[in-house]
Amino acid sequence: MKKSVDGRSEAVEKALKLLGAAKTHYLATNGSHGHPNLRAMAPLKIDGVKSVWFATYEGSSKVQELLKDGNAVIYAEASRDATECRLWGNIEVLSDDASKKYVWSEELRDHFPDGADSPEMRVLRFDVSNGIYIDKNREIFEFKN
Amino acid sequence: MKKSVDGRSEAVEKALKLLGAAKTHYLATNGSHGHPNLRAMAPLKIDGVKSVWFATYEGSSKVQELLKDGNAVIYAEASRDATECRLWGNIEVLSDDASKKYVWSEELRDHFPDGADSPEMRVLRFDVSNGIYIDKNREIFEFKN
């Protein structure tokens, strides 16, 4: 892979740019009855291509699924220039104060009126194992952590 | 469920309207290494909430995954009014002439220059077993085939 000035690959830089610009990520989990499950999520923090953080409710179907099986995939796209990114990895369901404070922003207030102290809030930390970035010419760039 | 004039439930009618309006559906499959896989797809035909049809290449990762395990989920959303729809079911990978002709439109010509006769073209028929429609108040409506 081509390396950029600071040592990161160009593919990783492009993936990060896309992930950061996309207001919506699509998250698939291993659901029930042998079927995958899938929903749109707003990414709250993106730590390089290492971890992507989300928030959800304790009682949500994804929390139930992820406690059984943390294997997951994230998809994000920039439909304007037909680029896309997929990340595979494992999700940890977290309920500690530090994680809640880390992802907290006032935009979450509608969902969690008690702020980062909301007891029903769960934090999902998606730890990336590998990923691909697909450019507008359909060329695929792979990266691994 | 409330029934509409022609006997279909309101949830099904709303789901169909959303599915038809969404240019992009998100399709998750049971991928490799225990992880789900996920990508954006353009729906080509929508036969009620019974079948949704797509086209792809013989060599694509989704074809390889679906030949091993046809269990899948489709997600579509109308982000403008915060409604969404999920359909669970099974995908058949088809290569017969009738299926190719059924989904063919000139918009596919960029991908398949030989038209509906393109040997590398595969048709995915997603047969819906059940689904949910979520309205803007986050109320969930379920339906089954």
SSE layout:
2 copies of one chain form a homodimer.
Chain A: H1 10-21, E1 25-30, E2 36-41, E3 45-47, E4 51-57, H2 61-68, E5 71-78, E6 83-94, H3 97-103, E7 121-134, E8 140-144
Antiparallel strand pairs in A: 1-2, 1-5, 3-4, 4-7, 5-6, 6-7, 7-8
User: CATH superfamily of chain A, called what?
Assistant: Electron Transport, Fmn-binding Protein, Chain A
Report the CATH topology name of chain A: Pnp Oxidase, Chain A
Helix content of chain A: 10-25%
- Residue stretches of chain A low in confidence (pLDDT < 50, at least 5 long) are none
Overall pLDDT score of chain A: 92
- Outline of chain A: globular
Report the span from N to C terminus of chain A.
14 Å
The largest chain-to-chain contact, stated as pair and per-chain residue counts, equals: A-B, 25 and 25 residues
The major sheet of chain A is characterized as: 8 strands, antiparallel
- Assess the beta-strand content of chain A as a share of residues: 35-45%
Given helix and strand content, the structural type of chain A is alpha+beta
Order of helices and strands of chain A: HEEEEHEEHEE
* CATH hierarchy, class of chain A: Mainly Beta
- Quaternary status of these chains? homodimer
Tell me the number of strands of chain A.
8
CATH architecture label name of chain A: Roll
* Overall domain count of chain A: 1
Radius of gyration from the alpha-carbon trace of chain A, in angstroms:
16 Å
Helix segment tally of chain A: 3
